[in-house]
Amino acid sequence: MNKILILLFCLPLLIKSQSTSPSVSPGADYIKAITPLWTGERSPDGRPHVSDRLLERLKNVSMEEAWGYLRNKGYMNQYEGNWWILRPDSALVGRVVTAQYAPLRPDLEKILKDKGKAEGRIGNMNSWPIDVLKNGDLYVADSYEKIIDGTLIGDNLGNAIYAKSHTGVIFYGSVRDIAGLDEIAGFNAFTKGHDPSYIQQMMLTGLNVPIRMGRAYVLPGDLALARKGGVVFIPPHFAEDLIINSEFIQLKDRFGHQRLREGKFTPGQIDGAWSDEIKKDFLSWLNTQKLPMTRTELDNFMKDRTW
After folding, report:
1. Within 13 Å and on the Cβ side, how many CA atoms surround 59?
2. Do residues 169 and 219 lie in contact, with contact meaning Cβ atoms separated by under 8 Å?
3. Measuring CA to CA, which residue among 70, 46, 32 is closest to residue 243?
4. Most CB within 10 Å of its CB: which of 27, 103, 136, 220?
5. Rounded CA gap, 59 and 49, in Å?
6. For 51-89, how does the pLDDT look when each residue is reduced to its tens digit (9 = 90+)?
7. 140-167 pLDDT, tens digit each
8. Whole-angstrom Cα distance, residue 187 to residue 158?
9. Is the pTM of this model over 0.85?
10. What CA–CA distance (Å, rounded) separates 79 from 214?
11. Half-sphere exposure of 174 (CA within 13 A, CB side)
12. Quick check: helix, strand or coil at residue 149?
């Protein structure tokens, strides 16, 4: 029982059951233990691995649809707003790799750096999360909103991040070299600010551990959807259903708008509960559309809906 309690609740500095030496990263067994509702594929580090296909479809989900879905499921603390955004008109999505930073304490920093060296980690601590990134991952860090001297990356590390993940970063803190970051085609950043200073008096205390991002609480392997309206963190076991819900709503809206422009139905008919006539017309209309999901997926989804 004691080992289970340690595994689940000693988040920033987990003590592995086979050792009394603290480690920045808790390992795959810990991540599996805190994400038991995910039953699909996992990355080698234990994080849930939502498919690339779903990640691509997530880019078209609106903030309000994702937020509303999660609220209806009882997940009230998955959103954070008020970001500085490198590319405001581009959506950023990915599988979350989390990092927890703290004000530097020399005695603890030495212990963590020695342990990291023994584990084969190289370079400064703010580069360790970059080393574990894979394609489709998203580097998400809580750096306690430190702006001056809290710049986790500049354009050099930004290039390294994009080369490995092809996504970007979400930092509850800051970045530097924004002109250089802007030159990395495809790279995006959501941060709380930017500053020309370099990182000082900070240390990495947790890698792939649960972190707080303002109003939101985030687990490794969550999906992040970042848009101009903010960032929402999606538990992976909801991802597929959330995405197809959003896609279905968008299809209904497109159909409704088209039929209103054509004058075939009145606003009261479209905005209210749909009649059998409208439902039949909608199903026929779907056959003429390019769908974001397979028709089989859509038919299975509609079987369980009351419209």
Report:
1. 13
2. no
3. 70
4. 220
5. 17
6. 999 999 999 999 999 999 999 999 999 999 999 999 999
7. 999 999 999 999 999 999 999 999 999 9
8. 8
9. yes
10. 8
11. 18
12. coil
